[in-house]
Structure formats: structure tokens, C-alpha cells
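Recap from last week: sequence in, structure out.
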Amino acid sequence: MNHSIAILAGGGPAPGINTVIATLAKVFLSNGFRVIGIHNGYKGLVDPQRETIEFDFALADSLFTVGGSFLGMSRYKPKDEEFDVDFFAQNNIKLLVTIGGDDTASTANRLATFLQKKELNVSNIHVPKTIDNDLPLPGNMPTFGFQTAKDEGVHIASTVYEDARTSRNWFVMACMGREAGHLALGIGEACHLPMIIIPEMFLGKRITGDKIARMIISSIIKRKIMGIEYGAAMVSEGVFHFMTDEDIKASGANFTYDAHGHPELFNVSKAHVFNLMVRNTLSKTKLSTRLRPVEMGFELRCARPGSFDLSLCTHLALGVYQLFTTGKTGCIVAMDENNSIVPLYLHNLTGSDGKVKPRLVNMSSPLVQNIFAHNLHYLTKTDYTLAKKHTEYPELFDFQNILNED
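Predicted C-alpha cells:
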């Protein structure tokens, strides 16, 4: 029986997954391997009735520019006792390629350890993906899917901004990002949005709904002083990671709650929650601004990959073959600042808690500093006199004051 490789994808989608899958299939097929795809991630792998597909060149060639993932995905994280050797032994699998985040990579390491104990030698190489751009890759290389998600987000946000200009409304937009604000910042700066709010800008100080609302209102008042009656604010959903349940509940959104009494944010639009926060504070001013929420997240994840991600994903998949043929295993495939393929080992990326420390927006970067200093619109002390037409207490909406509050 020919040697085989198996491919699975875990977590959520990102543009370029099919490019990775297709390139892997092409390069391994051309070198005499069978290529088996496993549907539904690890859930499919541990299911005795698993659904698999064997790739040929024609199938791979039809996929490499397509968005989404041809292989069904899941976030399932199996326990060690769910693993078995039969699938790997019966199909003579020599390499398991996983596509996903750090959880998917960690599970692959556990599985490889299990197979070695069963005297079955299966290499594992992980291809990291996330539209959040928050994995600490060498040379500040972007994670695959990020650039395409950003491009798609810019298309949506620029259209929303044009609606704001046309209808004289304000839009409150929310964007995916976990703890990091790369995507919100990238979209916001590209569209010249007058207010961008990401977790990193608070520099470790407390993040509250009141602060977020006052920052957006600061921009609304500043634009009114400038004679501009419209605008849009971009808020990274990552701020929720640092807010208390009580603060989130105070928005007045109609939440469902988990068994521990925590509001289930996945059941509501984050933009709707931010919009309510602004409305609640806006009622305490003299402003009569019309607000509309726009959620930006799932619309970005399955977009057709752009040229950057098509190239990056192709290089990463070819890099898997390079690492495999040179005996590397238990690693993540990455490109360094010289565009060379390098292996990254998970234990070198994790902290003392065993978790991968996210790559955050560097607020001290001159490029980021320029955006926040010169491309946003917000109140400063020089605006207080004119701002009193809209609020009795302009100092409450002073952007720097808000950032410096404990």
C-alpha cells in the first residue's frame, strides 16, 4: 500500500484553507502519496463512522482559489481515550496535517504522542490559521486569512461609511478579534474611520462600556464641531474579554445566560451591544444623533482568498512537504522575515500556563501612533468651548482623559 497523508481542519474558517488543502494534495500526490481528507475535524477523526475523501489532482485543482473549507470543520477537542490507531494503521498514514489554531495544534501533539506509544510512527505538522492575526509568528508575518478578511472588511466598512455620509447617520461597527485588535485597526485605518477602539489602546487600564460609549460620543461631538453630521466607529469585540459581566449586562441587551450566569455573547450582535451602550450615554447629552449597529465577523471568514493569501497558503503547504521530507514533526510550519520556511515548536510559543501568548497590536509602533494621533477625530482640551454646545461636561468626552482613567 502507498504511503498516505491525512488532512483535517479544526476551529473556525479563514480564507485560504482550501488553498492549503489543494496545494498539499498536489505536492504529495505528485510524490507518490495517497491524500485523505477527514471531514469535521477531530470529531470526524475519532468517529468510527468518519467521513473521508481521497483527493486526486482534478479535485484539488478545482479548490485552490475557493473560499471556505472543502473539508468540514469543527471545534471538537477529543480526550486521549478517544484516540485509536486503526485509521492510521489501515491507511498506512505517515503524516497528519492539521489546519487550525493552537488548540488544534495541541491536540495533534497529544495524538502523535499516543500513536508513538502504540508503536505507530506518524509525523504531525500544523498549518496555523486565523483572521485575527494574533499568533506570534516570526518576522511579524501575518497569519493566513488575515489579509483577505481585512480586504473584505474594508469593502463592507467603506460601503457602510458611504451610507453614513448619504443618510447623515452614525454607524457603530463591531469586528472579530478575540483579545487582539489587528483586524479592527486594519479595517478602520484603511477606511479613515473617525473612531477605532481596540483592547490594546487602554494599556492595561480597566475597559468599561461607559468608556467605549464616551469615546464614540467624543468623535461624534468633534465631527459636529467640524460641521460633519455623519461617521462610523469600529470596535474590536476583544474588549469584551476585559469587561465585567455586570458592565456588559448594563447595556440593556436581551442576553441569554450560561449555567454560571454569564451573558452568552455568541447569541447577540456585538455591534448591537455597543450601540446600546452609546445610546444610553448619548441620552445624557444634548445630541440627537441617529445610530445604527453593523456586525462584521462571519462575513469575512469564508471569503475567496486574495492574491496575498493565495501565495502565502501555497508556500506554507509546500513548506509542509519540505519539513516532512527533512524529518521534522510536532511543529508548526511558518515563514520567517526572509521568506524561508521554518518549523515552530508549540512549547516555544506557550507561556507558563501552557497557552499560546497572543500577538497584540503594538501601540508604541510609529505607524499605530500616527493613526491614533492624526487620523481619528475626538475631543481635546482645545475643543471644550465649542463642545459645550453639545454637552455641559466636555471633559468627560476628552479622548485622552478617558484613556487615562483607572
